[in-house]
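Hey, I was hoping to borrow your eyes for a little while. I've dropped the whole record in just underneath, so have a look:

——
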Amino acid sequence: MIPDDDLSRSLTVADPDDPGTTYISLVGNTYAMLVTGEQTDGRYCLIDMRVPDGGGPPPHRHDFEEMFTVLEGEIEFTFRGEKHTVRAGSTVNIPANAPHNFRNASGAPARMLCMCTPAGQDEYFTRIGDVVAGKDAPPPHLSENELAERRRRAAELAPTYRSEFL
């Protein structure tokens, strides 16, 4: 049986150019929080990722599903140690618990959408990154101590968000 419609939940229209969009600078990338777990009752989140040449996270894994659709450029995904170059128009699904990372090694900027289910990655990124003014805002200039603090915070909070760095 399907439950009744939950009238407390409303339609969400995600526009990365909306002035109310939160942009996070993290490891040199800029992430727009398009649809948050708060908006989906924790079911999923959707993040618009702008990844400059050379950008991407370190190897990691987590116990939730993660799907990427490359919108512009190309991204090199390493999945269980094997590299795959993914170009605009393609979608990659990373199964829960699988070791992976991505890197933009193309020589040009790239952009992709990332959906995580259930949600939580949006909140994790917000807690460990730095809010910036918009999609084209430069990353903040962080001192070595500030960078070390970001890495410490990411490692400390990773278990809370069901993630681990490898």
